[in-house]
Structure formats: C-alpha cells, structure tokens
Amino acid sequence: MKDVYTLADLDDQATLNPEGAKPAKLAVIGHPVAHSQSPQLHQPALDALDIDARYIRLDLEPGELPAAFAKMKELGFVGTNVTVPHKFEALSACTDLDPAAEALGAVNTVLFGDGEDLLGFNTDGPGFVRAIREEFSVDVRDLRIMIVGAGGGAGQALATQCAREGCEQLVLVNRSLEKLETLATRLEPYFESEKLNGPGERLEIYALDSPHLPEIAGHCDLLVQTTSLGLKATDPAPIPSSCLQPHHLVYDTIYQPARTKFLRNAEANGARIANGLSLLLHQGALSFEYWFPGTSPLDAMRKGRS
Predict the structure, then answer these.
(1) For the segment 56-89, what is each residue's pLDDT rounded down to a tens digit?
(2) Whole-model pTM over 0.70
(3) DSSP 26-69
(4) How far apart are CA 123 and CA 101, in angstroms?
(5) What is the DSSP string of 278-303?
(6) How many Å apart are CA 268 and CA 246, to the nearest integer?
(7) In whole angstroms, what is the distance from residue 242 CA to residue 220 CA?
(8) Could you give the 3-state DSSP secondary structure of residue 143?
C-alpha cells in the first residue's frame, strides 16, 4: 500500500483499496503530508475499537480540496483531518461550522454528513489546552503567553484559544504586523476585563525583528512556536536565543524532528521544553470523537505514539 495518496488515487479503487486491506475511510489532508504521524495515532484507535476502516495520508495541491471532498463523500469516507496549507480552504468548503472553528477561523477536522453536509470543526485550540496541561501541569488561563508566528493558521488558532481561555497576557509575534493587527482587533473583546495586575497591556503585538523582543519575552511564562521553521535542519531559529530564559515553558508545535533548533536553544538556556506530539495526540483524539461519538480513543492513540 502507498504511504501517500493523491487526488487521482481517489478514482482508482485498486490503488486506494488493495485486496485484503481495510477500506480507506479517514485521512489527513496536507501538502506536503508524508511526514504526518496521524495514521500512527488513528489506526491503532480504529483497530482497538474494531472499526473496519483505514486512515490514510492524502497530498493535495492548493485548490484540489473541494474536488477531493466530493470524491471522498462518494467513496463513503467518514471524515478527514486537514493540515497546512488547507485549513482556510476547508473553512470555506464546509456547509456548517462548529462555534470553535468559526471563532478560530480555520478547520482541521471535517465530518462528512448526510447529503451535501460538510461539518467543520477545529480541535487544535482545545487540543493545545490539553497538551499544555499534560506537558507542564499548568492551565493556559493562568499564563502570560507569547505566540511566535501568530499570523499563520496554527498561530491564529492557538492565539484565539488562549484569548478564549482568558489567559493572563497574550503577546503575538509575526514577521508581518498587518496580519497581527487584524487578529488583535478580533481578539480585543476577550481582554476587556482588568484581570492583569501591574504594567503592560493584556494583548500586545510585535514584529519578529523588534529589538524589544527579548525584554517582552522575559515577562512571559509560555513561549509557543507555530511557524514551519525547524522542519528542516538548516532552518534558522524563529527568535533569538536571548529571548529564552530558565523560567520559561517552551512549546514547539513541530514534532518531527522531535527537538528543533528552537527547542535545543531553549533547553540550553535552562527552559522546560515540549514538542507538538502531545498537541497532535489530543487534537486527534478530539477529532476521532467527532467522527465516532461516544468512543474513547486516547489510550490506544498513546500506544501508537510510543
């Protein structure tokens, strides 16, 4: 069986569902998507729950998503996960949106409903809250948080979730300030209370090249890296090492490689670190529960992760 399928493969039953294999009924859609570990989490859960289905990787070019959704519905797919760069396109393609997906502005989970129904959800935000609690034994709402790459899809989703949780302070960092200004305007209503004691605004935005970044980072508890920098060994660190201090909790949404340059720098500076595998695990479990209500896939997914 193939490791990665394409749009054309959805028209080829012999390729998609070779003899003796469980039928493909779930997928993770991305571009690229070969690195995704979602099948290693979802397939053990499907097998443990005796669900006759296979979870596959589907690599789609930008613009191919609507056609793929139509073909997947025809083939009887239950649903799909959606990752970079298709989360915004998935939002537009869905006929109904869960309130969390609407608030987060992106879809990472789709349930193929009856008829033409395409139900969109976003489990990244809630999964992130669970991941931080698991990794660091703290709640997002109690932290001062800096999100690096907050203008991207993942960054916007996590920033919105942190705002919805009522975190102590939220600092948004991005190469382009224009994207942050739009996001900050949308998030401002969440920060209208007087929860934060002491100087400083509860919601702030900074450019990646701001000379004030190390000082601002020093006032934060949790630093979250949401850009693609770190996927390649030659990638530079997303922020200067001087931003990373021993009191920091540092989370990189990248999970392969397990220790990016960002995490290595943080660890060298004495910070506690964690990578995005726990986010993948928790958002995946939430997705699975949308597809198969009443199930509890987390334990089987943990075994698949190890």
Answers:
(1) 999 999 999 999 999 999 999 999 999 988 988 9
(2) yes
(3) EEEEESS-TT--HHHHHHHHHHHTT---EEEEEE--TT-HHHHH
(4) 8
(5) HHHHHHHHHHHHHHSTT---HHHHHH
(6) 9
(7) 13
(8) coil
